Amino acid sequence: MRIPLIVGPTAVGKSEIAVELAEMIGGEVISADARAVYRNLEVGTAKPPWELRRRVPHHLLDHVPWWARYDAVKFRRDCEQAVRDILSRGRTPVIVGGSTLYVRALTVGIFEGPGADPRIRAELAMRSTGALYRELERVDPMAARKIRPHDRVRIIRALEVYRATGKPISHFWGKERPFPWPLLVVGISLERGELYRRIAARVEEMFAKGLMDEARGLFRTKLPADVPILRTIGYAELFDHFRGIIPLEEAKRRIVANTKAYARRQLTWFRREPGIHWIDRTGKDTTWVAREILSMLHGT
Description:
- The chain is α/β, with parallel strands linked by helices.
- It folds into two domains: 3-110 and 177-297, P-loop containing nucleotide triphosphate hydrolases (Rossmann fold); 118-172, Orthogonal Bundle (Histone, subunit A).
- The protein is 50% helix and 9% strand.
- The protein has 13 helices and six strands.
- A six-stranded parallel β-sheet has the order 3-2-4-1-5-6, with helices on both faces.
- The longest helix is centred in the C-terminal third of the chain and has 25 residues, at 248-272.
- 37% of the residues are buried.
């Protein structure tokens, strides 16, 4: 049987669907979320609630310290190991997440490029995104055509590979190592107005669960410039509030607006990816969606 990989925008209900499906097939959930992988970031990363995590085992949540450097290469390695462990117990992996680079590490594959270089990263972090993109256009025009000018993470990674190897990252494209198991990639969509309502409700819930205290504790810590938390929606806006740059209500408004924009980018990216089987869950409950995926797995 193919391994289900459930993707889609934030707040669409992927985690609940993954747990329902896992219960139906005797499975365990593997997270493909680039923020939920970090420990001590419980509220701001919108990790699955404990009532879901208690229903079936979850993997690659709270996997590394919040200050650690973790990337798609490491995720791919750890995801493969999690799949092997789950299969060895006679159970079925259910992979779920919306982090596009992590998803592509599974669907397209990944090349074993150089690991993160703190010295190179620190140097690149000091420069503006525009200056970094202009350098990428000069050293790797092919990559520059495929990477969006504002995608700072991928631009830095491309320049890091170039500086570490002397070869452009596009040189390695097409040489990716495929995922060892067949995947059924299912995209979950939702009517946009309902998705936006879910996002606004989630932000309110995050504040009710203690987002302010969690963010304040991180703000009081001396954070290296390249720590992913600095780019995470929810924390970044509250950091501006703690600095006195914006009032709390404006921070909350920006969190909602930035999350909506992120969901739109996710949808745009996933819509361009080939081989995704889409399910519109508008008006449908979680169990119905899980059963639809189960039918796909069984080829009915």
